[in-house]
Amino acid sequence: MALTPNSLTAIAFGSTRPNGAAGHRRKLHLYVSDDTHATVSGADYFNALYEQLNPGDIILAALNLGATPELRAYIVTASSSTAVTIAQIQTT
Q: What DSSP letter does each residue of 39-58 carry, written as one string?
C-alpha cells in the first residue's frame, strides 16, 4: 500500500537539542496504517512528509490494522526533499 499523509499526527513536542542548542524541536508522532512493518520501514515510504519530519523525531506506528495489529517505534535519521530515512528503535 502507500503512505496516507493525514494518518501521521504530531502528539507531543520536546526540547530542541539535548544540550539546549538551537535547532528543530523534536516531535513524537502517531502513525496508523494497514501497511506492514516491512512496507513502512522500506526506502522512501515517508518522503512525502519530509517537511513535517526532522532527524530525531520519533514515530509510534500502529500497523497492519486490517489483520494482526502491531506497534513499532521508529526514529527519523535523515529528512530532506529527496529522502526521509527511519530506523526501528530496538529495546533490550
A: HHTSTTTTGGGTTT--TT-E
Please report, as a single letter, which amino acid is at residue 7. S
Interatomic CA distance for residues 62 and 79, integer angstroms: 21
Smallest CA-to-CA distance from 31 within 17, 45, 44 is with: 45
CA distances from 62 to 36, 40, 68, 80 (A): 9, 11, 10, 24
Q: What is the pTM of this model?
A: 0.86
pLDDT digits (tens, 9 = 90+) for 49-74: 999 999 999 999 999 998 999 999 99
> Per-residue pLDDT tens for 27-52?
999 999 999 999 999 989 999 999 99
